[in-house]
Amino acid sequence: MRTLAILGATGSIGRQTLDVARCAPDKFKVTALAARSDADALFDLIREFHPAMAALCVTPKELPEDVRGCEWFFGEDAAIRMVRAAKADDVLSAVVGVAGLPAALEALEASQRLLLANKESLVTGGGLVMGRAAALGKPVLPVDSEHSAIFQCLQARQGNPVSRLILTASGGPFRRWRKEDIDRATAAQALGHPTWKMGLKITVDCASMMNKGLEVIEAHHLFRMPLEKIDVVVHPQSVIHSMVEFEDGAVLAQLGVPDMRVPIGYAMGYPERIPFGGERLDFARLGQLTFETPDTERFPCLRMAIEAQRAGGVMPVALNGANEEAVGAFLAGRIPFGGIPRVVETVLAHTAPGNITCAGDVYEADRAARASAKAALAAMGA
Ligand code: NDP
Ligand code: MG
Q1: pLDDT digits (tens, 9 = 90+) for 179-188
Q2: Going by CA atoms, what residue is nearest to atom 40 of ligand 1?
Q3: C-alpha to C-alpha distance for 240 and 116, rounded to whole angstroms
Q4: Tens digits of per-residue pLDDT, 216-259?
Q5: Confidence class for position 192, pLDDT limits 50, 70, 90
Q6: pTM for the structure as a whole
Q7: 191 C-alpha vs ligand 2 centroid, how far in Å?
Q8: What is the mean pLDDT of the chain?
Q9: Sequence-ordered list of residues with C-beta below 8 angstroms from that of 30, at least 6 positions apart, any chain
Q10: Cα dihedral 334/338/343/349 (nearest 10)
Q11: Ligand 1 pocket member 177 (CB < 6 A)
Q12: Residue 193 pLDDT more than 90?
C-alpha cells in the first residue's frame, strides 16, 4: 500500500488519478488532496477518499462540518506546505503552469517519488528539478502520455544508447485549417480537441501546438536527450503515444486507446501495471494509422518553443510565462487565437539572455515575462 498526495485533485488529471486509485484500493491510500479554488469539488473528493490533509489556495467562506476532520492548509503556497507535512510516498502533481514548480521541488524533498503531469515545471525549471532528483536519488515518473510512452519503451533498452525520441502530436482541431482562419479562431473553436478531453489551458496549447513544443522541452529534461535527437510527427489518431529509435534503426512504440488513465496508472504503479477497466484497441476497426510533418508556418509556437530551449537560460521561462498570459487573454475573449504566438514572439524578442541557477531566477524571469506579455497585450488593445 503506497500513500499518495494529489496536487490539482479537482482537475482533469487529478480526477483520473483518483479514478485509478478507486480501482485499486488495496494499492493506494490517498492521504492528501490539493486544489486552487474549487472548494465544493474538493469537499466531495474528501467525503469519498477521507485524506488526512487537504489544501486550497483560495480560502473558502466556510468548511462544512463533515470535512473538518482533515488537517487544512490555505493560501497561495498551501499545496507546498501540505506536501511538506504529508510526507506521502508519492506526490502526483497535476497543477497547471509554472505555479507547479515549487510544489515539485518540495515533493522531491518530502516524498519518495514525484509523478509529474505538470509539464510547465520542467519547461521552466527542468534543470533544477532533474538535478535535485538526481542528487536525492529520487525518481521523476512521467504522467504526460508521450513521455510515459517513451519511458515504457525505454524499459526494453537494456543499456543500449537511444538515437532518437519521436513525439507524436494529434495536430489539434486546426490541423487542416488555413493560417488566416487559425489566426481568427475563437476559444470555443480551440476547445474542441479531436482525441483528448483535458483542462482548458492544455487544450488551447494543443490547438496552437505550443503543447508539443513544451513537451519537446519536457522530454529533453526527463530523458537527458539533446534537442537534435527529439523529433515531432503529427499522428491524428493519437494511438501511437510516442516512440524511441535505437542505433540499429529499430523503433519501439507504445500504443493504446487515448486514455490518460494508462500513463497515470503506469506512474502510480510503476513498475507494476494497474488494470482499471479501460477500453482496448481494436486494430481492424482503426484501419489505418497516418503521419504528417508538423507545419511550423501555421503553428509557429512549436518552432518558438524549440528555439527558446536552444537559446536556454531564461528563454524557456519567458516563453512559458508569455504563453500562460496569452492563453489567459485568449480564453477571456480578449485576443484572437493568432494573438497567442504574437505575444510570445514579442516577449521573447524583448527578453535579455540570462542564466537560471536557482528557483528564484525562474520566478524572477517568469515575473518579467508576464509584465512584458501584459504590455504586449495592451499594445494589441486587449
Ligand atoms: P485542469 O485545469 O483540469 O486542472 C488543474 C488543477 O490544478 C485543478 O485541480 C486546479 O484547482 C489545480 N490548481 C491550479 N493551480 C493550483 C495551485 N497553485 N495549487 C494547487 N492546485 C492548483 O488541468 P489538467 O488536469 O488538464 O492539467 C494539469 C497539468 O497536467 C498541466 O500541466 C497539463 O499540461 C498536464 N497534462 C494534462 C493532460 C490532460 O489530459 N489533462 C495530459 C498531459 C499533461 P481548481 O479546480 O480549484 O482550479
Ligand atoms: Mg502530452
Answers
A1: 999 999 999 9
A2: 198
A3: 21
A4: 999 999 999 999 999 999 999 999 999 999 999 999 999 999 99
A5: confident
A6: 0.98
A7: 16
A8: 97
A9: 3, 4, 5, 6, 18, 21, 49, 51
A10: -160
A11: no
A12: no
Find out whether the beta carbon of 36 lies less than 6 Å from any atom of ligand 1: yes
**Given the C-alpha cell 494573438, which residue does it identify?**
339
Contact between 49 and 18 (Cβ < 8 Å) = yes
Residue 38 CB–ligand 1 contact under 6 Å: yes
Counts of helices then strands in the chain (DSSP H, E): 16, 11
Tell me, what amino acid is at 85? A
Please tell me if the CB atom of residue 104 comes closer than 6 angstroms to any atom of ligand 1. no
Cell for 178?
488555413
Length in residues, the chain: 382
Domains of the chain: 2-142 (3.40.50.720)
- 3-state class (DSSP) for residue 5: strand
357 sits in the region (left: phi over 0; alpha: psi -120 to 50; else beta) called alpha
Nearest CA to ligand 1 atom 24: 199
pLDDT over 80 (residue 194) = no
